[in-house]
Amino acid sequence: MPVDNVPLLNEYKQEFVAKRIPQTLLGGPNLKLGYSAPFYVYVAQIALWFVPWVISGIFTVSTEVGGLSILLGSILTGVLVGVFVLTLQIVHVVRSFKKSSNPDRRNELTSSQQFRQLLADDDEIFFTSCCSSTTYNFVIPKLRFTPGVILRALFAGVLSGLGYWYTLPSVLNALYGSSVAATVIIYIFSWVAISCAQYPLNVGGIPPEVATFHSVDPYDIASLSRATHVFVFYAFHVVQVYITSYSTVNAVLHILFLFLPLLWLSGLFPPIDSLFLWSLEQLLVFALGGSPMATDARLLTNVILSGSVLIAVSFISSIPALVLFSACFGFLLSTDVVSVVFVLLFKFLSFCSSKFNESDVPHYGGSFSLVAVGWHIVTLAITALVAALAVNYQTQIASNSQIKIAFEILFIILAVLCKLLQDFQRVYVCFRLFRNCFYPNGFANTTGFAKRKKILDGFGYLHLSLTSMLAPLLMVFYLSSHLHDSGTVILPSFVNGLITIHAFRMVWQRSNSALLIFAVFSTIELILTSPTVALGWYETISPGGRLLLLDICIDRSFRLLDNMWFVFVTTITSYADKKQRRKSSAGLVALNILFLPLVITVIVVATAISAPIFPIFTLPLFYVAFPRPSRFWPQTPGEAPASVCSDTAYYLQMAPNLCRALSRGTYLGTYSSLGAQGSDLSSFLARSQDKTFWVQTLEQGYGYASFYVKGLELQETSCHALEATRVDDACEAAFEKPGQASCLRTNPYPFLYSLTPLDTISIDGYSDAKNSLSGIIDYPIAVKQFHSDYVKCVVWLLAHFLRKKRQRETIDIPVIPSGPFERKKAVIITQPSSMGPEAIKKEPVDVRAKSELSFESLEDVLSSQENGVKLNSLKPSRRSARPAPSPSLGSLASILTNNEETAFVSSKAAKERKSCSSAKSTNLPGTVPDSDDDLWDLDSELSDSGFGLSSADARKKTTNDVGGKLPQSNGHLNFSTGWGEIPVSDRDLEPYKQLFDKSWYLHVTSSIDDKSGAGWEEDELMMTCRKLALASYYIIFVQSVPGRDPDLVGASHLCKVYLDNIPWSPGLDWLRQRPDLHQLVVEAHRSGTSYVGSSSLRVSCRFDVISLPSRYAIKMMYDRVVMGTVESAGEEAYDEMVTSLQEYDSDWFIGVEGSRGWEVAVSKGVSSLFSLSYDSNKGEYSSRMLLRRKVETHVTRLSSAAVRGIWSNLSWELLYATNDDEERYSIQAQKDLLRNLTTQAADPPLGYPIYSSPPIYESTLPLPRPSFLEFFQKK
């Protein structure tokens, strides 16, 4: 869509904003409703707006004419206004009480009015009278935060009382030389400003402010913002009373006071919460030498700790004590001491109250290991030693100017060297113009890339040793010997304590910035050694004051350059980029050139107050946004819920690894910059395959850093894809073109691009492979083999479930009497009448199989299929019987037969079974006869087996064929009642008996029963596995197939089974309704995985268990076809198949992409994942395979000015103009500034990242990771 057709603001939003502007200007009165309202609604609002002015005017006249004292008039004005505001809110309480006591008067509207109000488009309100509750609630809304009533009344009283004094005509005459015109104009417009600030306090509402920090304000703090701004002007007026030299400043501020309504409308003045946090952050960084903090709680705690140290320093009267104290505490405050405070505090609270859990420490970094603690202790000791030596020899060192000059030259050399070491590790050098010759030419050759990176790591460790130890210690030595002159310094002193703490803390908290500051400081000092150079005002400042001043100036200089670049790029690209060019673009560029001094003023003001530059609608129309904290957004990072989806798990798994790599690059210098550690910490964009990470540095100190990671959507929109493609192009040009020599390559996007490629790293993640399954899932030979593989997978899963049950010693297995798929077993008959219950429990039962039945081999089955014989026509073959090995005591068979609840067959049941056996069978004492001739005689076997009845009912069974039921035994082998009702008869299963491979069963059972060394013969376990495996096969691949012909199973049915979208059949309902069977297969599947303890994963896979064997079999079919071994699958050794299944069970998650199980597997870091899907639009089956490995990730740095500017416009558009049009201009793709990606990366609810992490704290020292603080907590 052409950008001229994209609206800046929709028509209906234009009308909405037009109604909001008067409200913002006047402080809240809604004088332009969107529907018809009676006149008294407007009159009431206007009257409330004038009440404070009228009260003040009465006492103003009394003072000027009647001689009332100023103090008394001010007090009376404040008290009356405060009582008035309090009364208005008390009326709400009284009305609410009357409504609750009289239910008939709760609704004053008629039924027709209620209906019209329900259908109104603009939240229409029906007013019945001027005194109705509806009118009162509209004009004076009830406060949401009840304790705020007293606070509002107090604010209102103080505001009016001081306003009375501030605008007295006698006071104004004294300021402006008895000018009547000036006095009248200033008085009128001053009270207009005061009334605009007073109205939100009077009525309890919050005016729609352009400067909005919180999207939701539950405590109504925003209504106090205007009053706070007015109090700042009052404060200067009060100071002028005691310091008369401020009279000129006070007169200027009185004139500026008149424009407060316009300043509030412009959004330049920050809300009170943003102003408070911004002030604390500026105080911490530039006065106390610290760093921006990750959360509000950490910021407040750090300011309190630093302020306490500053107060203590202010009372020290000795220079050596001041230096030693400041050096030690400056180092301690630069570390993650806030985390230690929170841990100790929560440990104490958890000891005092059970409501607090010491393991759930908020705002906790956890970045100190035991080795790190030792490192910090040693560093602290060395720091104290260096400071002590310097103080001890201060006189000799200070008197020798050559030592001072040598230190200053050394600081300059170290700054240059560190800058070179940083650039050598990045892909671009010389202001990102040329490619670094030292950087690897491409990562296609992983060996060469790794070797070159090791060389660059050498530069990094040299940088680490300089910035983390050598340079800070040299700066400590210099400060200890030259910061204070013993002949001129006056102690104790608050100012001297402030500059001392700032200097000593800065060298550790922000080593790179401190080194640049010292280099600039040294350069100026060397220049001042020339007798012809003089900087009068600069030379009067102490060395500590100069360092503090340079700290502020250097920080603002970097911010100024970034802001100028942002304004330049926004202006140029608005016309140069044809896709961004609007009809007004040329005119806007001309206006910026014509009013260049005004544009420069905007840039300078924004830089001076550390505020973002606000491009209105992201057009080249620039204004100053209100100041904010460094992290920009009000919520604690990660607190606002992200737009979570199935792709969130990929970011959740990779985010800690990415932060760990960024912290490593920080201490090596790859991502560090001299002078970029002040109030403007770096932001990064990392690109890994199709994943885009947005990383903000929230906090940084000695040995630690805090990162905030957000993941952007993988399902790219057109705008997202356009900007992501530009990012990929920039990274490819920087990292992935090995053809040309590195030294001859330049950056194709050198200036007009907000993104600077830095480095390529390898982090632990997932490689993503998506392949079409054409020729795989529909390969005829593979599909034929699938039927046998499915049954084998079922048997394997069941056997492993029983092994797990054996380990827990809680095995329940059903007894299946003789049927068409089992040999009659030798069972020892015990007379129950001769034994008591205790004896029965202890009496062992030995189960022996006289002979066994073997089916045709898989090769024979497949050859018969290839010759035209269908699966349901295959017949079993017999082989010679062999004796079965006796199970060992530790085998599963022995556990089955030695269970406490051992099953016995009564003598009556034995006689019945004996009478039903073949006459030619050999009868052994106490055994059931065996017969081979009638093995597959379904009629006789079904009539004899008691199939479907419990063991008790089997003694009374009739000769009727009751179908496929498993018997319920009163002994040790029994399942729940529902298991005995499999809705499949033995006649249905008989054609598919050859799918059950007894040799496979014996191999599986022998491989898991280590003590027996061999598989079990035809016992109850085999009967159970055979029955359940064939029944599940019949239900899924026969009943659910049209015509009940398994030969018709193809790619479509396999995909449906895999996705658990099996066509309905009666047996399928039964299978889904067996919770025990579900749990059985789930346990078998999860037994070998690393995430076995995840209950959420088990629940999510509850309905996957039906198709789980199918998924294993499909994955096996996929592997065989890809490897080209499908034709020889029938000859595959059992050990190979067991190995594959064990690998699937332990190392793979084979499931549905996007399911809860898939998400948990990714977040837990399962090594491999496989899924299958079908694209109905393309008619194509495809697979997705994720393999956990080291993934190449490109790290780039973002322009902070561009990010802040786009976010400022987003905040204004959505929170004030409510311009939520998904096709608005400000969200369209802008490849140079990455406007769409930046909008997505905003904190919810304004942005829509799919992943948002809490603050992630990482060590910036090459030390082990185990947390000392967590260890301390456990202790």
UniProtKB/TrEMBL annotation:
Biased composition (Polar residues): 916-925
Region (Disordered): 869-892, 906-935
Residues annotated as transmembrane: 39-61, 68-91, 149-168, 180-201, 221-239, 251-269, 299-316, 322-346, 367-391, 459-478, 490-508, 515-538, 558-576, 588-614
InterPro entries, alphabetized: Pecanex, Pecanex_C
Compartmental location: Membrane
Keyword Transmembrane annotated: yes
Family: Belongs to the pecanex family.
Name of this chain's protein: Pecanex-like protein
Lineage: Eukaryota, Metazoa, Chordata, Tunicata, Ascidiacea
